[in-house]
């Protein structure tokens, strides 16, 4: 039995798998006492390995390892970006400087598509990566995510005062909160329009705000993307492939 962990900057996702079977899944924060709620003591006893993909700081990585080790004596292995995995080749001259989540999402995407595609991971940051039909990573972009954009406005502007709220529209705002949240949604729609206009390859989307990107793509006029698919567990799927060799 293998515990797979995707430790992002904001949220930790995990799955307990037995071979190809998914037994348990969950998400939460490192500080939560119920992060691994749902895994029974009996299941912890038979966990044989723990595989982690993380972009967190070294201190946070150590804290995560300590929390996991309190549940199981199974070895905890951290998997980082590599120069290649099978046919998939990383574009970075120093792969270690690429976030592991991006790499594992690309591994999962390549396994699904086996051809040219784009991978969008909409988490704390929004990353977009291109893979050609040979499996060569062509590079990508890193943009601030939805929460990062709103957080920077809250912290970096003295008079842009607003409370957090769920605002899904894109019409011009009539309050500061609407101006901020509608503006962020507008930028996401603009990103989707750019992707839909410029790409003619399948796009796989993951991350906490992935559904927003998928919805914006679906509603984008003139979208030429042949397939846009939401894959919430793409990082974990790629991690499982890397872990299995």
UniProtKB/TrEMBL annotation:
Its main location: cytoplasm. GO terms for molecular function: kinase activity. Keywords: ATP-binding, Coenzyme A biosynthesis, Cytoplasm, Kinase, Metal-binding, Nucleotide-binding, Potassium, Transferase. Its cofactor is K(+); NH4(+). It is found in: Cytoplasm. ATP binds at residues 6-13, 124. Substrate binds at residues 92, 99-102, 176. Its EC number is 2.7.1.33. The active site is at residue 101. It comes from the Bacteria. It catalyses: (R)-pantothenate + ATP = (R)-4'-phosphopantothenate + ADP + H(+). Homodimer. Catalyzes the phosphorylation of pantothenate (Pan), the first step in CoA biosynthesis. This is Type III pantothenate kinase. It comes from Marinobacter zhanjiangensis. The lineage of its organism: Bacteria, Pseudomonadati, Pseudomonadota, Gammaproteobacteria, Pseudomonadales. The gene is coaX.
């Amino acid at each position: 039995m293998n515990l797979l962990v995707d430790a992002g900057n904001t949220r930790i996702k995990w799955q307990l798998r037995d071979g190809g079977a998914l037994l348990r899944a969950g998400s939460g924060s490192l500080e939560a006492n119920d992060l691994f709620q749902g895994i029974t003591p009996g299941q912890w006893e038979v966990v044989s390995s723990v595989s982690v993909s993380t972009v967190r700081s070294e201190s946070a990585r150590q804290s995560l390892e300590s929390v996991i080790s309190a549940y199981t004596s199974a070895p905890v292995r951290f998997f980082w970006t590599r120069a290649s995995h099978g046919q998939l080749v990383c574009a970075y001259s120093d792969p270690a400087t690429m976030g592991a989540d991006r790499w594992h999402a690309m591994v999962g995407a390549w396994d699904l598509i086996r051809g040219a595609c784009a991978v969008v991971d909409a988490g704390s940051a929004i990353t977009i990566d291109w893979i050609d039909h040979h499996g060569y990573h062509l590079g990508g972009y890193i943009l601030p995510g939805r929460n990062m954009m709103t957080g920077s406005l809250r912290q970096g502007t003295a008079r842009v005062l607003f409370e957090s709220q769920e605002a899904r529209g894109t019409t011009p705002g009539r309050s500061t909160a609407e101006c901020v949240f509608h503006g962020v949604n507008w930028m996401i729609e603009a990103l989707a329009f750019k992707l839909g206009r410029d790409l003619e390859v399948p796009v796989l989307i993951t991350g906490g705000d992935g559904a927003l990107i998928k919805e914006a793509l679906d509603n984008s006029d003139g979208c030429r993307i042949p397939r846009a698919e939401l894959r919430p567990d793409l990082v974990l799927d790629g991690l499982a492939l890397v872990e299995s060799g």
